[in-house]
């Protein structure tokens, strides 16, 4: 009788621990075990690299263009001014959007914490 009780108690504890460990698994954990994984999106990084390459190409084209030094410097100053203006505009837009993104991050964090807390109870 005592042995059956201990075996029953041990299997109950093992089953509860197994259920607890399974409940914390996510899709990425399961995919990783079978050798599959979600791929990270590199789109923005690739766009930035293409932009940097275009800027470098434009700079080289200006330097190698058959024009006088004065004309080349004026064109480079004009193009750099355009790049500066575009950068200032992008930073201004990012500054304008930052509070909304911060609030969205706070909301998603609160939702994640509340769902985790609710899930564990």
User: What class do helices, strands and sheet pairing give?
Assistant: mainly alpha
- Tell me the strand percentage band: under 5%
Contiguous runs where pLDDT drops below 50 for at least 5 residues: none
Mean pLDDT: 77
The counted number of beta strands is 0
End-to-end Cα distance, whole Å, is 34 Å
Number of helices: 4
Radius of gyration: 29 Å
Helix content: over 70%
Largest sheet, described in full? none
The ordered H/E elements are: HHHH
Q: What form results from the Cα inertia axes?
A: elongated
Can you describe this structure?
Helices cover 85% and strands 0% of the residues. With 121 residues, the protein is mainly alpha-helical. The chain has a domain at 67-121. The two termini are 34 Å apart.
Please tag this protein with its features.
single chain; mainly alpha; 4 helices; 121 residues; elongated
What's the quick description here?
The chain is mostly helical and 121 residues long. It has helices at 2-23, 27-33, 43-64, 69-120.
SSE blueprint and pairings:
Blueprint: H1 2-23, H2 27-33, H3 43-64, H4 69-120
């Amino acid at each position: 009788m005592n042995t059956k009780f201990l075996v029953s108690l041990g299997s109950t504890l093992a089953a509860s621990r197994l259920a607890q460990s399974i409940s914390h698994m996510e899709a990425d954990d399961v995919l990783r075990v079978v050798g599959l994984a979600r791929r990270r999106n590199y789109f923005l990084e690739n766009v930035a690299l293409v932009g940097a390459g275009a800027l470098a190409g434009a700079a080289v084209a200006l330097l190698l263009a058959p024009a006088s030094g004065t004309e080349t410097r004026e064109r480079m100053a004009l193009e750099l001014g355009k790049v500066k203006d575009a950068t200032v505009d992008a930073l201004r837009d990012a500054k304008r959007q930052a509070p909304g993104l911060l609030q969205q991050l706070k909301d998603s964090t609160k939702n994640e914490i509340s769902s985790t807390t609710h899930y564990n109870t």
